[in-house]
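Bench notes, afternoon.
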Amino acid sequence: MELVQLWRSKLFMSFGFFYESLLFLGKKSNVFSLFLLKSGKILRKFILGFYDPLIRVKTKFLIAAGQKLPVEVPPDFLLPFSHDLPFYLLKYPFYSSNVGRIAAAVFKKYQHLTFIDIGANIGDTLVVLRQKAHFPVLCIEGDSFYFNILIQNARHFENVKCVQLFLGEQEMTIQSELEKKGGTGQLNTTASGTATISLKSLGTLVETEPEFAQSKMVKIDTDGFDAKIIRGAISWLERIKPILFFEYDPAMLSKNGDDGMLMLSGLHEAGYRYAIVYDNLGNLFANIELSDTAQLQMIHQHFSGKNSFMYCDICVFAPEDKDLFESIFNSESAFFKQQSKS
């Protein structure tokens, strides 16, 4: 038994070393390094055809270049060998960092901020948030594979609660396929599903989580289920009006029978007025008013027909947070202007 455990430990470390070696090669630009990187990725793909081990990767690979690690975060982070997040960050340094900067600004205004992270995956957003500020976070992840990794990574943080749950428009049971690719998971409701999935609405969930019933910021990243989750929480959103940061992927929304423009119209009816838009690589794209349907349609068309290769993240604000909308957009504009100079 001890020999088996030792073998597993050595294999665990070997896959982690191999993964980090690929990340190291990704920083190089010479021909030989690029050749090794390409060969390594082919080997990784081959291995994943048989086995997807859990590995530990240095946490620094989960944050944007040049950023400091939060003191409470361990030096390494658990993730599946198939997870592509560190590779995205290597190539696109602003990827996923925007939510941390926005949350820090929200925390300055709302000192008792609580945050809801829907589609928490392995807990990578926690690292981004803890870089900027410290406040309670409710992590929601439905996929048992990612949830088990999430709870192991989240135990290193204080004031974090993890809930395994799929959210939707209402409390119901559906037949669906659970699809995983590159470190993300999604429910495919168009497939002849073999998995029975229980859904609950966010509006119902917050009734059972009183600490987060007044949360002033919510992040939703559920690969096409975002519209359903928003509809299921519309009464709560209308009452609390948290800053809402969500993925807007017309292809994924359409795949799940939703219309993105109707979702944005519903948010306007719920009292949201302003939005900041980023492309899916984390770059600032636009600021708009939700009453400007022509501009919304332009953004919708820009990110349509891309088959999820290109989409955007949208952060919406109610009138009482117009000051945040303006200050965040101004600071984000200054941030990216500075980055373009460096």
